[in-house]
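Shipment paperwork, digital attachment
Item: protein structure file
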Amino acid sequence: MKSVFINTKGITDVTSNFCPGCTHGIANRLIMETLDEMGKLGETIGAASIGCSVQIHKFMNIDMCESAHGRAPAVASGIKRVHPDKVVFTYQGDGDLASIGMGEIVHAAARGEKFCTFFINNCIYGMTGGQMAPTTLLGQRSTTSQEGRTKEQAGSPIKMSELLATLEGAVYVERVALDTPAHIRQAKKAIRRAFEVQEKKLGFAFVELLSTCPTNWGLTPADAMKWVATNMMPYYPLGIYKKPEEIQ
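Attachment content:
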């Protein structure tokens, strides 16, 4: 009997416990599927952050290391310098990377550390109760911005891809989304480019993935997908912000 679909060896058989409609699972699969296709599963070490990503070690069939809140880039820097032949990446949410971990990611990028970072941006703190994050949009409600974020009180949301692209050590920066099949295919290409940048030892690679959080947004999974396009993309435009000539 011919198989229609075969799961990647990079994903374990553990049942996911992400909320219905959450696109963390899609991101997990894309990363592992890419590593599987590149034949790198046995050569990869991932550094997970605090947040919804704290559990990804259960789903990713590779060596994983847990990091303190925001410190995944520091952990990954140490791993990559001790094991320069390994494929190393961090997997971080916006509350982790753009808040307590802002100093870590900026300096890792500035140093040109030769690992990849996959940044899951869903505009809110997911695991801890839906608080306002550095990426929460103006007017967006959260448990700590009941009437919506205001520029006067919290400033404007931080655009991490644009910020990191200004640093010389960050050689590849792209923002993608996980809301449609077409965008998901584009996201996989971006993940592949990031790993190729590392394989060629060119410098720091950063992929931002616009993601959903139906639970804390108070939306159905279907409406959350639409919210990504109608609310997030106008402020966080998709595209390649920086790419070395060696990478297609």
